[in-house]
Design a protein that fits this description.
The structure holds two protein chains of two kinds. By secondary structure, chain A is an alpha+beta fold. In chain A, strand 1 and strand 2 (114-117) form a beta hairpin. The two termini of chain A are 132 Å apart. Chain B is of the alpha/beta class. Helix content of chain B is 46%, strand content 21%. Chain B has a five-stranded parallel beta sheet, sandwiched between helices. Classes of the chains: A alpha+beta, B alpha/beta. The A-B interface holds A 514-515, 518, 521-522, 524-534, 536-537, 540-541, 547, 550-551, 554, 557-558, 561, 690-695 and B 10, 12-13, 15-17, 19-20, 22-24, 53-60, 79, 81-85, 87, 104-110.
């Protein structure tokens, strides 16, 4: 490519135009030369033709003159002239020239006297041209020709030789004429002169039929240069002397050719002088007419050349454009390619350019590929860098391996987790942290998935920096490099140890719940079945029989049992969601438990068991007494349930430093060591077997623990094993003995008998309350609805009224308000009985005038509370 | 007067059933578990055994099998509230074990009495 730099920058069309010119110009020049040659040749031929014509004319005139001379010579030899028989000679002479129009014969004697004239009859008087003087002037039509033809006669007389005259104007006819005179010699001396007078027009006829070009000018000039004959009326008229350049040429030479330019018009001039007559034949052709044929050729040539040039240049332009456009496109494409754009130029009509296009396209594609590759690499590197940044910050343990399965990278979280540097983890180093029991399995999972390029997920224990093995879940997946080629694996681990633990706990809780539901069914079905049976007995047997009494006992016990089950359930539900409230007051545990055991004993709930209560020291607590009693009831219930009849159960109360301690000990079935840790779990029970089912729903101990904790206390369970009994110890924070015993603490199991009115529409509840109160010696009256209750109150004046809130006619609140109106002095104690126990419900009943609020079902504890109110009222 | 032996560990349930059956005119004895039931049957020779499934000492299936072997003439009735996940399972199992009738607790006593009359 070196060496082209200096070339001027020109358009392709220009080059092609130059190419066309380079090809055409020499051709045209050559053609022009040929044409010029042709023109010259034609000119030469034309000239030669003109010269030939001139010669031919000259010869024709000579022929005419010779012919006349021959006639004259013949006549001159006539015998008639030997002896002067002029008359006969006239006849002969007249016959001789009869064929020659405009010519006649004249015979002169040696003095110049005309003797015979063939144009005149014989004997006519004829003039003597030599006599007298030469007439002066001239005929105006023929200014340069002399009047009268005496000159030749004179010459012949002087020279004795034939003479051809120049043009003269006949005196007789005043027309131009030529005279040819010959001497008639007799006996060695001139006797006569015979003259043939010829009309000049005769020669005009000679010009006709010579093939002259129409624009050729022909003139026959006499020796003086006066035109005898002329086709040129302007320059050389008959009788006029030829002037100018042609005349000079003719004067200078006998024959020749030349160019003259009369009146600015180029004219070719050819002339020749006859030796016989001395006349000159002059032929003139204008240059233009001479070149007329050539100019046609030249026009054809020039037009053709111009046309060829135009066509050539046009074609060059078109072809140039055809070539230039794809090249321009390619240039544009190349620019685009340079900018990294993908360009597909369309096919072009030029093989070289097509090749170039394909080469460019290929180069462009290659260029793009290179660029794309560079970009990919850049993106990949950038992506890698950012990935690692993000990965390092992620709370997930991330690893990467190469195609050889060996690990190539770990993120910061991993390294922090295992507490080892990257170098130790690389390759197979990481395996050191995997629990030995899990290692084989992990390796197998990883290897199998890796070989199949499949994602995998596995769980294993990974040793943390503190040495603890933590369960992690590791999810791995094949990764690809920037080109999409398999590059190894990448995986992330999440510490699921806590999750696994809570999962196990949840599963266990779920299992307990299922067991509980099963047990709940059993526990509820048994009392229901018993109650249903008893109800049948009561329906069919006489109420006064022992059977009926027993049946009522069954119902009483089972209803209570069910109520307690439901209480416990609701309680544990409330406690579980933290809704339960504690109603705390300060009391002494020993006394409270003494009372509780007494109630149980009196209610027959201790059965045939021996229950010993041992209060070592008074232990004061600030607690919800009902809840504390619930704890002890539960523990007692459990011990009784799992202890064989006749065996003893002991309840002990003692005061430790800062603590009040209750211990319930039985000699029952005990608890297997593996079950000890589960006994406090909700719904849990000892290992189950059909034969070992004892009822009880696994609520008890959970409830106990919860309540103890709510009081800031704790519960522990001990057992030597199955069949070896159980000891449950509950501890509460103790308080100092109050200075003055609260009134509540002074209550006695027995209270003075009072008149009590029960207003309750539910027969069973009413009956139960009545029985319970009557058992304590109170006088009890009943009403089944609000109206009769108010009436009873008005007539009976009770100390206490237990009023159900949900009465059929007037609701309990209204009953309370009316009762307060009847007995406004406050002596009447009003107790609400309701299924609703929320604080809002309590507030509402207080506002209605109630002194206390009992929630159904009403157990012994509640009744005792009601009874204590009776006492307070007194 | 037909004699019925009740094997049931829930005292109140056994008691109430005894009362109901006596009211209906049967002679009834109660055993607290399967072992007691077999011992009682030796002397009592009940025509019908009504037994629970879930009992201590010896469960209902064992009791059923023992009765079928030792006292082939005795009609066998199973009552159960057993419901460890599938309440009907024990009753179906009891049928297969040779029970003449099964009742799920709580049951209508009339239905039981009607069944007993068929025996």
């Amino acid at each position: 490519m070196v060496g082209v730099d200096y070339l001027p920058l020109m358009r392709l069309q220009t080059y092609l135009g130059a190419l066309v010119l380079a090809a055409l110009v020499p051709l045209l020049v050559f053609a022009a030369i040929i044409v010029r040659q042709d023109v010259l040749e034609r000119q030469e031929i034309l000239e030669r033709g003109m010269q030939d014509t001139a010669h031919a004319l000259s010869l024709a005139i000579d022929g005419e003159v010779r012919s006349s001379l021959a006639v004259l010579e013949t006549l001159a030899g006539s015998s008639f002239l030997d002896h002067g028989d002029l008359k006969s000679f006239h006849e002969v002479g007249t016959r001789a020239v009869s064929g020659r129009k405009g010519s006649y014969l004249v015979l002169f004697d040696e003095s110049g006297q005309a003797l015979v004239n063939s144009s005149r009859p014989f004997g006519s008087t004829l003039p003597n041209p030599l006599a007298g003087t030469q007439p002066a002037g001239s005929e105006p039509r023929y200014p340069d020709a002399p009047l009268g033809g005496a000159d030749p006669l004179l010459k012949v007389l002087q020279s004795g030789r034939p003479v051809v005259s120049d043009l003269f104007v006949s005196l007789a006819t005043r027309e131009p004429r030529i005279g040819v005179d010959v001497p008639v010699m007799r006996e060695g001396r001139l006797k006569y002169v015979l003259e043939m007078s010829i009309d000049a027009a005769t020669f005009t006829n000679l010009l006709a039929g010579k093939g002259m070009a129409s624009d050729s000018l022909v003139a026959i000039l006499d020796r003086r240069g006066v035109a005898i004959v002329s086709s040129d009326d302007s320059a050389a008229r008959v009788g006029h002397r030829l002037a100018g350049e042609p005349a000079r040429q003719i004067a200078a030479s006998d024959s020749g050719s030349g160019r003259v330019q009369p009146r600015g018009v180029p004219v070719h001039h050819v002339f020749t002088r006859s030796p016989l007559t001395g006349w000159t034949t002059s032929l003139r052709v204008t240059q233009a007419s001479m070149l007329a044929s050539q100019s046609e050729a030249l026009t054809v040539l020039g037009g053709g050349a111009l046309l060829a040039l135009l066509v050539g240049l046009g074609a060059a332009l078109l072809i140039g454009r055809r070539i230039a456009r794809p090249i321009s496109n390619l240039a544009a494409s190349a620019s685009s390619i340079a900018q990294g754009e993908k360009v597909e130029p369309g096919p072009v009509g030029v093989r070289e350019i097509e090749d170039l296009r394909q080469a460019l396209a290929a180069a462009g594609a290659a260029g793009r590929e290179v660029t794309a590759e560079r970009e990919r690499r850049h993106i990949a590197e950038e992506g890698e860098r950012r990935f690692r940044e993000i990965a390092d910050a992620a709370p997930v343990l991330i690893w990467m391996s190469g195609t050889d399965k060996l690990c190539t990278w770990f993120n910061k979280s991993w390294l922090d987790f295992v507490g080892r540097p990257m170098a130790q983890e690389l390759g197979n180093g990481w395996a050191d942290n995997v629990h030995p029991e899990d290692f084989e399995r992990c390796l197998h999972t990883y290897s199998c998935a890796f070989d199949e390029r499949q994602p995998f997920s596995m769980e294993y224990r990974l040793r943390r920096h503190d040495g603890e093995y933590r369960w992690v879940r590791d999810d791995g997946i094949a990764r690809a490099d920037a080109r999409g080629k398999f590059a190894g694996y990448i995986g992330g681990c999440v510490d699921i140890d806590d999750f696994k633990r809570s999962e196990a706990t949840l599963k266990q809780a779920d299992r307990h719940k299922d067991e509980f539901v099963a047990m709940l069914g059993h526990e509820l079905r048994n009392p229901l079945a018993a109650i249903a049976n008893a109800a049948y007995v009561l329906r069919t047997a006489d109420p006064d029989t022992e059977h009926a009494a027993k049946a009522r006992g069954v119902i009483d016990r089972q209803a209570r049992h069910m109520a307690r089950l439901i209480d416990d359930l609701l309680d544990i539900s409330r406690l579980s969601v933290g809704k339960a409230e504690l109603s705390r007051k300060t009391f002494e545990l020993g006394e409270a438990l003494t009372e509780l055991v007494a109630v149980w004993r009196s209610a027959g709930r201790l059965g045939s068991h021996r229950v010993e209560l041992n209060v070592e020291q008074p232990a004061w607590v600030y607690a919800d007494r009902t809840r504390i009693e619930q704890i002890v009831s539960n523990l007692l219930d459990n011990s009784l349930k799992f202890t064989p009849h006749g065996e003893s159960v002991s309840v002990e109360v003692r005061a430790a430093p800062g603590e009040a301690v209750i211990t319930v000990t039985d000699a029952g079935e005990g608890i297997a060591p593996q079950d000890i840790s589960r006994v406090f779990q909700l719904f849990a029970q000892g290992t189950q077997g059909i034969a070992r089912s004892r009822g009880g729903m696994g609520i008890g101990l959970a409830l106990v623990k919860r309540i103890a904790e709510m009081h800031g206390g704790s519960v522990t369970v001990e057992s030597e094993g199955v069949g070896l009994g159980t000891r449950v110890t509950v501890r509460f924070p103790s308080v100092a003995k109050p200075a003055q015993e609260p009134a509540v603490a002074a209550l006695r199991p027995e209270s003075p008998p009072r008149r009590v009115l029960i207003i309750e529409d539910n027969d069973d509840t009413r009956q139960m309350l009545r029985t319970a109160l009557a058992m304590n010696g109170h006088e009890v009256d009943e009403a089944a609805d609000g109206a009769s209750g108010l009436a009873a109150a008005a007539s009976l004046r009770p100390d206490v009224a237990l009023v159900d809130i949900g009465l059929p006619d007037i609701d309990g609140y209204e009953v309370a308000r009316r009762l307060r109106q009847v007995a406004p002095d406050g002596k009447l104690v009003l107790v609400a009985i309701t299924g609703y126990g929320q604080p809002a419900d309590r507030d509402r009943s207080r506002q209605a005038g109630f002194d206390a609020h009992l929630t159904k079902p009403i157990g012994p504890e509640h009744l005792r509370e009601a009874i204590s109110l009776l006492r307070a009222a007194s | 007067m037909k004699k019925i032996l009740i094997a049931e560990d829930n005292a109140d349930l056994a008691e109430s059933l005894k009362l109901a059956l006596e009211t209906a005119g049967y002679r009834v004895e109660v055993a607290n578990n399967g072992v007691d039931a077999i011992a009682t049957q030796v002397s009592f020779a009940a025509d019908i055994l009504i037994t629970d499934i879930m009992m201590p000492e010896q469960d209902g299936f064992e009791t059923l099998n023992a009765f079928r072997k030792e006292f082939p003439g005795t009609r066998l009735v199973v009552i159960s509230g057993a419901q460890r996940f599938d309440p009907q399972k024990y009753l179906r199992a009891a049928k297969l074990a040779g029970a003449d009738a099964t009742f799920r607790k709580p049951f209508a006593i009339e239905a039981l009495l009607e069944k007993l009359r068929e025996f």
